[in-house]
Design goal:
disordered N terminus, about 0% strand, mainly alpha, Ribonucleotide Reductase, subunit A, single chain
Length: about 300
């Protein structure tokens, strides 16, 4: 169930944001080297809710005026196409997970868990709004004048594995929870898939490299500010997932098998989502990294969280 690294030795650097107090406050084990030894202090559900109250932000406060100049005047057309591949999975993914959270929230067995998951629904809606504002105000897509049109046009830039992960694996679990909210095994599978794989491996890895690349290139400052806020939200969500799965394993050891089975099914699909459709030798032209580095970073994040849970 390890994310692959193609047997290539890769040095994985910590995210530049890992030292920020607001990021560290989330208690996501991936941000702590101590997690390599299985050590981390996880927040409780009420503490995570209170942190959500302290970490609010507004999409309408972001300024995309320089981003518009950068996109159309500083970033070459071929690079814009490659960037679209990286950004599209986020835009579509945020919309899909916002749709799927309701049944998961209702199925959570404890009220404190449900209250936190309600905040995550609000977060995911704000993330969709963030991408919609960026695409619309910057003019990323010609002829797409509203959210529905932008989502439809953006979906063309996602690959088959993306749809397998979201439309098959995730949706099937969520649909089952909608009909049988007391199916705790399915809830554990859904949290594992959503928080540990989709957010924990895919989202956080992409955010790491996209934000660092734009920061280094001094491009898209409004996007970087907003996407950093999105990343901080995701770390908080993942911290919830780690806490929930840890609690479930401590409650009943049989959940280890449920989690392991979900990871073995989902991680290979997630690996294929990471890989872009162009030749591997062109990888460094997108966000300055190879796919081996991306896979290695995702694997490290997953490994740290699993060690803290006691599964690795």
């Amino acid at each position: 169930m390890e994310a692959r690294t193609e047997d290539v030795e890769v040095t994985v650097s910590a995210p530049s944001r890992a030292g920020r107090e607001d990021f560290k406050a989330t208690s996501d084990p991936a941000l702590e080297e101590s997690a390599d030894r299985g050590k981390a202090k996880l927040l409780g559900y009420t503490e995570l809710y209170e942190l959500w109250e302290r970490q609010q932000w507004a999409t309408q406060d972001l300024d995309f005026s320089q981003d518009k100049i950068d996109w159309h005047e500083r970033i070459p057309e071929e690079e814009r196409f490659q960037r679209m591949y990286g950004l599209s999975s986020f835009f579509i993914g945020e919309q899909k997970v916002a749709d799927e959270l309701g049944p998961m929230m209702r199925a959570a067995p404890e009220e404190t868990q449900r209250i936190f998951l309600a905040t995550q629904i609000a977060d995911e809606a704000r993330h969709v709004r963030f991408f919609d504002c960026f695409y619309g105000q910057v003019g990323v897509l010609d002829g797409a004048d509203d959210l529905a049109a932008r989502l439809k046009a953006t979906e063309e830039h996602t690959n088959e594995a993306f749809h397998e992960l979201f439309d098959d694996l995730l949706k099937s679990r969520v649909d089952r929870l909608a009909n049988e909210p007391g199916d705790i095994d399915t809830l554990v599978e859904a949290i594992t898939l959503y928080h540990m794989v989709i957010e924990g491996m895919l989202a956080l890895s992409g955010q790491h490299f996209i934000i660092d690349y734009n920061t280094t290139q001094k491009t898209l400052p409004g996007f970087v500010e907003g996407f950093s806020n999105v990343a901080r939200d995701e770390h908080r969500h993942i911290a919830f997932g780690v806490r929930f799965i840890t609690d479930m394993v401590n409650t009943d050891d049989r959940f280890r098998g449920v989690i392991q089975g979900m990871l073995e099914e989902a991680v290979p699909v997630a690996d294929r989502v990471i890989d872009p459709p162009w030749d591997e030798e062109d990888d460094s032209d997108l966000f300055g990294v190879s796919r081996e580095e991306t896979h290695a970073f995702a694997a490290q994040c997953l490994s740290r969280r699993l060690k803290v849970i006691g599964l690795f």
